[in-house]
Amino acid sequence: MKTVCLDSTDSTNSWVALHEKELEPTSLVYCLNQTAGRGQRGNSWESQPGMNITASLIFHPENFPAARQFAISEAIALAIVEFISLFGVEAKVKWPNDIYVGDRKICGILVEHSVTRREISRTIAGFGININQTRFLSDAPNPVSLAQITGETYSLESCIAALAPILERHIQNLSHQESLHADFLRLLWRNDGHPYLFFDKKNNKPLHAFISNVEPDGTLRLLSSDGATHSFAFKEVEFILETPSDDC
CB count, 10 Å around CB of 247? Predict the structure, then answer.
């Protein structure tokens, strides 16, 4: 995998899309100063210059159905969880593909695909991992960094060197989708048998429920206290941060 370092750009995903023809087919581009990082639902990503990993991975899956695109999100998320574990920190994947340590967000992921004849011809997976930043000024409710958790500071160059082969191995294993999905469910945040509070955006009301499953297409299944199953696609439900309860 080719690794490229940029001094500054607005968004690594945007830069990679613009410069795709100049890159190796599988490349990891990271930036020391990302000025307008993009997150899910149009959110921005806060990152102090030179403090965190802001990067995008571009690759070209072979014969990969667009209907199974969620497997790619799973692979990227699991790779980042494994990377964080190198520092003795246990992370989980918050559906659909944020990375949490406890109830705090350490990484956001934005995966964008190009589709040709119902197959994914190109993927750009952008992510921001909080490494050394210890003060967050945006209105994000729960950011955390490796430095805050461990009390250590880290070389970003060394972090990228450790992360790149993990990412490459996970995307090379995309054909093993059953085991990939099983690992995703095992490492899913709040998939622990406790009921939690969600906000059902489809019906504009709170919902107290367990996570019962995530389908291979990414659909989240919740089981409420009345035994009803609720299904949600991306952006149709929100997690509400609270401590678990046993009285659902």
Answer: 6
Residue by residue, DSSP assigns 131-143 as -S-----SS-SSB
Determine the Cα–Cα distance for residues 54 and 30; give it in Å rounded to an integer.
6
The token pair that represents 105 in the structure block: 């967000």
Q: What pLDDT digit, counting tens, does each position of 207-243 carry?
A: 999 999 999 999 999 999 889 999 999 999 999 986 4
The Cβ-side half-sphere exposure at 229, using a 13 Å CA radius, reads: 7
Alpha carbon 16 to its chain centroid, in Å, reads: 18
pLDDT in tens, 167-184: 999 999 999 999 999 999
Tell me if 46 sits within 8 A of 138, measured CB to CB.
yes
What pTM, to 2 d.p., does this model score? 0.91
Nearest to 150 by CA among 82, 85, 55: 85
Helix (H) or strand (E) holding 5: strand 2-6
